[in-house]
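> forwarded from #structure-qc
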């Protein structure tokens, strides 16, 4: 019976309910003698298990989806010029989105709205993590300017894959592997490509299962967090400002950055583009999945924007996998916000690292609802920020996911128009 009823409640409503329930449990526990301890010992660990599951799937996901994305370029080897142009536009728009997100997060400082004494308290909880990070920062200072590049190249793929903070190294290997695979004859490589296709399906299914337990994981994490914050409510106003920062930044991309690109590089008038792309944005907004929106995006881009089928059938599917301007902008703000709440100062090297990491990791983000959760746990760990910080933002993620998915698909359509020379 309860299972039947649950089916009718959308997952994002369940996750939001989980967040509220967790907060209520946390507040209630604080009223009881030893309640906070009970929450830390018996409830919070379930949230940790949820985070660990997300982390568990991150390396296989990045590895498989990147190789799949790159080997997918095979079908278009004859369009190598179009391929280069498309990838260049995708990467540069993603960099702009990340820099915008990072600047917004650093300027607005939503995380600093959390009560100072609470931040000090939280810092105590993450003492060992902070010390480790300080040590790391000191180490980076001592290294030469090219050490950043050096650290991207793994000297042992198993060591890299065995350490969640070495995400860039795994990405490097996957890209190298994928590019090498592209040069092997199609007949020979076919079984390998279909193996990666199937692996990708299995991994997406695993993510689906993990996300299904998200309402419980979020409830447990939230209860632990409220107990940690001693019931301080300033975190909620900080969350509100965080959500607003993400929303405004995403709107700037849609209504400022994309129209500018259209004006500079196409003959399409931005209002006309917006009028035609509107149903696609709405569909992406309601489904929170750029993959699910792809058929509609293709239809509209071809029929309404007049992009050739040749261009659309290459640019759009590739974009669904590798181009996520909304997601990367959001990830940058999320990382900065979590660092601020945990009282962590990010130095210039870390910020640069976050830019590189969010740009490449958005390539490995699946175009499904909540696709970024998995990737975000890795970005956080790699940037030296505890992944548990995800608990802060996951409860209110759905509306932001809806908006960033709309941005993601709009970016794909803009790129298709530019590549096609419309
Ligand atoms: N839902 C997004 C998409 O499908 C991915 C994400 O940011 O979670 O594009």
């Amino acid at each position: 019976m309860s299972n039947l009823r649950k089916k009718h409640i959308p997952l994002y409503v369940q996750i939001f309910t989980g967040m509220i329930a967790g907060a209520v449990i946390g507040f209630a526990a604080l009223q009881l003698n030893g309640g906070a301890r009970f929450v830390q010992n018996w409830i919070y660990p379930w949230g940790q298990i949820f985070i660990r599951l997300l982390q568990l799937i991150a390396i296989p996901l990045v590895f498989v989806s990147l190789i799949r994305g790159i080997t997918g370029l095979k079908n278009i080897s004859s369009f190598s010029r179009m391929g280069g142009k498309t990838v260049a536009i995708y990467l540069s728009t993603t960099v702009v989105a990340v820099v915008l997100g990072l600047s917004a997060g650093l300027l607005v400082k939503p995380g600093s709205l959390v009560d100072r004494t609470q931040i000090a308290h939280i810092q105590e909880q993450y003492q060992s993590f902070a010390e480790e990070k300080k040590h790391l920062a000191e180490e980076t200072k001592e290294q030469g300017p090219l050490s950043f590049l050096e650290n991207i190249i793994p000297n042992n793929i198993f060591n890299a894959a065995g350490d969640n903070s070495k995400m860039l190294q795994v990405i490097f290997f996957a890209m190298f592997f994928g590019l090498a695979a592209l040069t092997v004859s199609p007949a020979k490589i076919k079984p390998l490509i279909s193996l990666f296709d199937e692996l990708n399906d299995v991994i997406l299914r695993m993510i689906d299962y993990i996300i299904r337990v998200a309402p419980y994981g979020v409830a447990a994490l939230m209860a632990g967090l409220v107990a940690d914050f001693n019931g301080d409510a300033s975190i909620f106003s900080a969350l509100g400002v965080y959500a607003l920062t993400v929303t405004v930044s995403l709107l700037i991309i849609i209504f400022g950055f994309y129209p500018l690109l259209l004006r500079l590089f196409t003959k399409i008038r931005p209002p006309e583009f917006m009028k035609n792309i509107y149903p696609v944005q709405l569909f992406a907004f309601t489904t929170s999945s750029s993959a699910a929106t792809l058929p509609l995006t293709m239809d509209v881009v071809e029929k309404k924007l007049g992009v050739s089928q040749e261009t659309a059938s290459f640019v759009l599917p590739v974009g669904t996998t590798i181009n996520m301007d909304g997601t990367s902008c959001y990830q940058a703000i999320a990382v900065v916000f979590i660092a601020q709440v945990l009282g962590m100062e990010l130095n210039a090297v870390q910020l640069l690292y976050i830019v590189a990491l969010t740009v490449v990791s958005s390539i490995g983000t699946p175009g499904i609802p909540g696709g970024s959760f998995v990737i975000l746990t890795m970005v956080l760990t790699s940037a030296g920020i505890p992944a548990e910080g995800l608990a802060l933002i996951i409860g209110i993620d759905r509306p932001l996911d809806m908006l960033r998915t709309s941005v993601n698909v709009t970016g794909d359509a803009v790129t298709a128009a530019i590549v096609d020379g419309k």
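QC bot note: The chain has a mean pLDDT of 84. The first helix runs from residue 2 to 8.
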